[in-house]
Structures are given as C-alpha cells and as structure tokens.
Amino acid sequence: MAVLSKLLGCCCIHTDQELPFSEKRLTTNTDSYIPYKDNLSKAEVADKIIAKLFAAKKNDAALQADLQSVIHAYGWYDGLASAILSALEIAIKIGEEMGSAVKTAYDKAVAAVNTVKDWAEAHPEMTAVIITLIALGILALMIPWLMAYLGFAEGGIIEGKFVPCFYSK
Question: Where are the domains positioned within the chain?
Fold first, then answer.
C-alpha cells in the first residue's frame, strides 16, 4: 500500500489517509487555514476583504488577485461595496492592527484629511464623515476598481450611485 500511496502522491492524487488539508477547509496564500462556507452575507464577505487588506504587506498585483478571488468565490452582492466601506470604517474606529500596505494607504488618507484639520476641529460632530473620508482614501489607493461601485469615477461622482449608497446607512 505504501508504494501505491507514493505513486499516487506523485500524481497529486492523495489517499484518504494522506489528504494535504481538511476537505472542509481551503488555504490562502498565507498558508493558514480558513473555514469555507457557501452563501456568505455581505458583512461576512466584507470582513474577508478587510482581513486580507489589513494582513497585506504590499499593495501589489498579488493582493489585487487575492481580493478578486474572494469576489469570484462568493459573487458580488448588491450593497457589497458599502458593506466593505462600513467594515473598513469599523476597523479604523476600533484600532484594528494594520499591515504595512494598509498602514501606508491609511497614512496617505489621513494626510489628505489633515489638510482640513482646522475645519474638523471646529466641527467635532463630523468625526464620522472624517473616518468615512479616510476609509474612502484607503479604498481608492488599495482597491481602485471598488470605487466605481461606491459611485466614484475619475471625473467625479457617478449620478445615482453615490447618494443611495451613503444615505442607506
């Protein structure tokens, strides 16, 4: 049986005793195991995307492919873009530990928002707006294709997309 197992192993065919990972788990590019579940909610898919952003060391093609694989695996839901933005806002508010890629994007977004710091200090009730602007800045730097789903284009706001997304919160 050992000879047969070795032969099958060379052909990437594993016997029941030698499975490289649990049939109920999938691997990510970080070599850690994550549970797989069909029919995730918008919030769960958004959490997976934010977790990948916060774990990323570099904002590169590999990260973009990893993010696209989540969308490909679970599909695109109505309102997923706003769920991703909301999840990112929450992660920023609670001080979630950031990987180097998202930290770089965060620092750039904060620097841009700090240009209006005097106004923000004069209007403390606008803190939520400032966090949203920081989150949008991070998304624009790290997932630019997502911005169109939120209603933003290079030329400005896409009519009919921005307002429903943000006023539906």
Answer: 1-36, 38-167
How far is it, in rounded angstroms, from Cα 64 to Cα 143? 7
Of the CA atoms within 13 Å of residue 136, those in its CB half-sphere come to 20
Q: Check residue 72 and give its pLDDT.
A: 85
- What is the Cα–Cα distance from 54 to 95, expressed in whole angstroms? 11
Tell me the mean pLDDT in the region 78-89: 87
Neighbours of 103 (CB within 10 A): 14
- Total-model pTM: 0.59
Whether the Cβ atoms of residue 134 and residue 106 lie closer than 8 Å to each other: yes
Q: Which of 51, 42, 64 is nearest to 142 (CA)?
A: 64
pLDDT at 160: 66
